[in-house]
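Morning run. Coffee first, then this:
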Amino acid sequence: MSVLEKIENSPFKLDSFMIIESHIEREPGALQEVKVKISPKGILNRTKKNFSLFLDVSVQDNVSVTINISCVGSFRFKNDINEQQLSNYFLINAPSIIFPYIRSYISALTALSGLPAVNLPVMNLTSLKEDLKNNIKDISSKSKSTTKAKTGNKLIN
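And here it is:
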């Protein structure tokens, strides 16, 4: 049996990623050390087997750049997943899966501004676990209803 045959597909997968809102202010000058603040929240629907992770990301260097981004990653999961695995997927894996998209977006957008690109460092996001855990809304019992989240006119089902 080859190594690839031993690898199992994850019961948790990213369906889509979307930038909901972005705001960037740049001033000419050398980029200083950036501070990154991430505020997570989630919407869980066990009935439809989906989880939507919302991240509000703020990047500042107190001199030449201020960036604020809101985004959502939509995930699907399978029935045969236990609570502990599900918790790890939501609280640890989900932020780690969508953060590279945010890093790439910020890098590409700032590179096109005519000033040096803002390249965020690779980050260990496990510190978001408790904050995210306290900010997940479970709408599973409302299986036939639709919840409107902070996505403009978008509806999260």
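Residues 143-157 have pLDDT under 50 and may be disordered. Good start to the day.
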